[in-house]
Amino acid sequence: MIIHMKIHTVERPYKCNQCDKAFTRNGDLCRHKKIHTGVKPYQCNQCDKTFSQNSVLITHKRTHIGEKPYQCNECDNTFSLNCNLIQHLRTHTGKKSYQCNQCDKAFSINGYLIRHLRTHTGEKPYQCNECDKAFSKNDHLIRHQMTHTEEKPYQCNKCDKSFSEMIVLKDI
């Protein structure tokens, strides 16, 4: 607990002039400022994604090689990012710290709460660039965009038909 308190009381004299973040070292501030400029000099040689920090590129490369160095001590799940392990650990505790202020639902991950709040506000931040449709969830936009490309990535294992959405076929 003493170490945790020290983190919050340490002086952070290097302040970003574009947001409210502050840092203990000037180098950290310089790295942070890249997110505001959009400069992304570090490029993945396998998928062409670019990043503002080399450390993020190194972490990204784990997705290509399947490296998952973070293992749950409660089950066999492994993760490429420590933050994903931390989120996963909440599934074992059942702790749901993120409470909706509109209804009685609670969530273990803040992102799930943010996504849920859209059911109350009607917000649809994911806009199709081909038509006027908008969606509350990014995966719904991705699925919708297949209607424009006629992409059909899901194949029936009993016949040669392809589908743009995963469907469950029942035996007749």
UniProtKB/TrEMBL annotation:
One of its GO terms (molecular function) is DNA-binding transcription factor activity, RNA polymerase II-specific. Its main location: nucleus. It is found in: Nucleus. Residues 14-41, 42-69, 70-97, 98-125, 126-153 form the C2H2-type domain. Gene3D superfamilies: Classic Zinc Finger. One of its GO terms (cellular component) is PcG protein complex. Keywords: DNA-binding, Metal-binding, Nucleus, Repeat, Zinc, Zinc-finger. Belongs to the krueppel C2H2-type zinc-finger protein family. This is C2H2-type domain-containing protein.
